[in-house]
Specification:
Elements (H helix, E strand, L loop, with lengths): L16 H6 L8 H21 L3 H17 L10 H19 L21 H17 L2 H12 L4 H8 L3 H17 L1 H6 L1
């Protein structure tokens, strides 16, 4: 008994006009969707950020809304209204997340007390700030520059040395002398 092999088709069958309109590949790609996302992503991300308090959650929210838009891309008739469609998807997705969130409540015998940190009088804080600046302006220019770079600009000793073109040891000794002068300033002693 001999087996007959069926001929192997090397090309896709001819599609009739009716089946060509209905058939689409399983993993369709839409170049217009990709260009839309590239062009409108910053604006849509701002919208998503206005709906959430966390920037990472906003990115996830936008990604979910864009995935929903991608699925419905070929059903959207008016592509001029895409922003509205995506915004509605953002809002609906955020509402669904809000409804599904789980709130944990724990019963306890006593309510925890909030410990407030003492903030002090704003007028006194401003007076101290002004006295500090007056004391800093009394320092020699080089020490003043080093103090400002170290403590107001929050640069490291190495970064301060690099900016001013001096050695790290010079920064350490000059800042130490400047802080000593600031500690001895009578106006700061009186304010503190």
């Amino acid at each position: 008994m001999t087996a007959t092999l069926a001929p192997v088709r090397t090309s896709a069958p001819e599609a009739t006009p009716r089946t060509a309109a209905v058939a689409r590949p399983a993993a369709a790609t839409y170049p217009s969707f990709a260009s839309y996302v590239r062009a409108r992503q910053p604006v849509l991300l701002r919208t998503a950020r206005s709906l959430t308090s966390n920037p990472c959650d906003a990115e996830d929210l936008l990604q979910t809304a864009l995935a929903k838009t991608y699925v419905a891309w070929d059903r959207i008739e008016d592509h001029r209204a895409l922003d509205g469609y995506v915004r509605r998807a953002l809002l609906n997705t955020r509402t669904s997340q809000w409804r599904k969130r789980k709130i944990d409540e724990f019963v306890c015998d006593e309510l925890p007390e909030h410990r407030e940190t003492p903030t002090g009088d704003p007028a006194e804080q401003q007076a101290l700030h002004d006295a500090m600046w007056r004391a800093i302006t009394k320092l020699p220019a080089r020490q003043r520059a080093m103090v400002v770079l170290r403590y107001y600009e929050d640069l490291s000793e190495a970064q301060t040395a690099q900016v001013l073109g001096v050695s790290i040891g010079t920064v350490k000794s000059a800042v130490s002398r400047a802080l000593g002068k600031l500690r001895e300033d009578p106006e700061l002693r009186h304010t503190a």
